[in-house]
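yo

u said u wanted the structure for the complex thing, so here. seqs first:
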Amino acid sequence: AQSVTQLDSQVPVFEEAPVELRCNYSSSVSVYLFWYVQYPNQGLQLLLKYLSGSTLVKGINGFEAEFNKSQTSFHLRKPSVHISDTAEYFCAVTFNAGGTSYGKLTFGQGTILTVHP
Amino acid sequence: DVKVTQSSRYLVKRTGEKVFLECVQDMDHENMFWYRQDPGLGLRLIYFSYDVKMKEKGDIPEGYSVSREKKERFSLILESASTNQTSMYLCASSWDTYSYEQYFGPGTRLTVT
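structre next:
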């Protein structure tokens, strides 16, 4: 079965500390991988995406993620967080099962990142 | 800038009412999507549309229907609202099959009492 799992529902961290938000997926087909961020009372915004090429992907606001095919993971990292990074983060996957996927996304459960001063 | 707008930010309806949630995008996108967002469950796809009058079921279509009469507008319909449909509803759009980036509206928080 195809699924996406975010391993941590909540991650508290102090300002300027590094952070890693974990995402694993299960799939027998090729995948495209995404991280979205949702600030309070807003819709989702794309942080970064992996479609092909280099497995290290850089996104907006200093975030990056690494695609690890053998581990079926796509963890999100930032070396030094700010108060303004407090938000909910979603990992999402497009499963390319043949035919046209229309870019449909399967989302993980979300991780709430809280940055404390 | 791509803009996806949803007709209401907050909506309160009674059980059994027919509810319409409207979504409009201003960038001539081919694809449009409706998701519901629940704590601890992430976003789940209800329906999507890849062209005018074309639609496909997502993962949780039961109790919902959709309409896309014009390219820029995608409506989600709750035929007979129930309390278990209390949720945040998010609309999204994307250029076409190969763009893979979805643009989201701000969401409608629906409460069914």
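The longest strand of chain B covers residues 42-51. Chain B has a mean pLDDT of 93.
cya
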